[in-house]
Amino acid sequence: MQSLDGKIALVTGAASGIGRAIADAYARAGARVVVADIAADNASETAQAIGHGALGIAMDVTDEAQVEDGFARTARELGPVDILVSNAGIQIISPLVDLSFADWKRMLAIHMDGAFLTARAAMRQMIAGGAGGSIILMGSAHSHVASKFKAPYVAAKHGLLGLARVIAKEGAAHRVRANVICPGFVRTPLVEKQIPEQARELGLTQEQVVRDVMLRDTVDAEFTTLEDIAETALFLAGFGSNALTGQSLLVSHGWHMQ
Ligand code: NAD
Q: Into which family does the record put it (predicted)?
């Protein structure tokens, strides 16, 4: 396993699903992990369960003050961050014509504002510390393809590619790398919730949604797993040069090939 000994890693949305799996993998690889999530209790409980000196902090990634406070506390208690995984996210399934402006803005705030605010805070610490770092944004296969009823999600996930490319360019002189992981469907609470929602919108059974919508374009009709994504995040965190920056890695059973 790749070693992250002595590294400080902050993972947002780390109290559930993909973020939690990444936080776990980083801790087992030797990093001190900050479990940042919107609910303080969930963040602390997860940090405790992960062990290895993980720290749980409450951070709503859409709130500039909470993001700044969380990064300041991290620097105070553990040191400047070496690795950021901007992962917090939600999904709202709705035809575009029925989508409220409030829901559009909420989605962009969590996925885009959250990525900007956390990446800016991480970059400032990485540049000041002089040791470089790895910024990983959680994109999606939807950073490259579109699906019905996911307008703000698809727009935001496409936007993350642009943000990562700018961070890669501005960060290069400071050895700050930025990449996007683009998972296919992973069975987390975010996905379990949308299976019945999509079934309703599309007039399909839940089995049909899984087979004919979610996994239809994969090479083997299989879900991506938490382990698949955690391993990719480990690889990107440990990769030590600017040779791999500004990229997106699709981990989706061939759903989209670039
Ligand atoms: P999840 O629902 O299991 O976990 C999301 C976490 O984000 C939760 O702990 C939640 O509390 C937290 N969160 C939500 N809003 C927040 C906020 N404002 N501030 C801080 N934390 C907040 O979902 P998941 O499936 O693990 O998704 C994680 C990321 O992976 C998301 O960005 C999602 O878009 C992306 N993704 C998921 C899949 C999938 O199939 N599950 C596929 C591609 C991309």
A: Belongs to the short-chain dehydrogenases/reductases (SDR) family.
* Ligand 1 centre distance from Cα of residue 127 (Å): 27
pTM: 0.98
Per-residue burial over 79-118, b = 16 or more CB atoms within 10 Å of its CB, e = otherwise: ebbbbbbbbbbebbbbeeeebeeeebeebbbbbbbbbbbb
What residues have CB less than 8 Å from 41, skipping those under 6 apart? none
Which residues in 78-150 belong to E strands, given as ranges? 83-86, 133-138
Q: Are the beta carbons of 22 and 46 closer than 8 angstroms?
A: no
Q: pLDDT tens digits for the chain (258 residues)? A: 679 999 999 999 999 999 999 999 999 999 999 999 999 999 999 999 999 999 999 999 999 999 999 999 999 999 999 999 999 999 999 999 999 999 999 999 999 999 999 999 999 999 999 999 999 999 999 999 999 999 999 999 999 999 999 999 999 999 999 999 999 999 999 999 999 999 999 999 999 999 999 999 999 999 999 999 999 999 999 998 999 999 999 999 999 998
Identity at 18, one-letter amino acid code: I
Give the CA angle between residues 111, 96, 18 to the nearest 5°.
30
Pocket of ligand 1, beta carbon within 6 A: 12-13, 15-19, 37-38, 59-62, 87-90, 110, 138, 140, 183, 185-186, 188-191
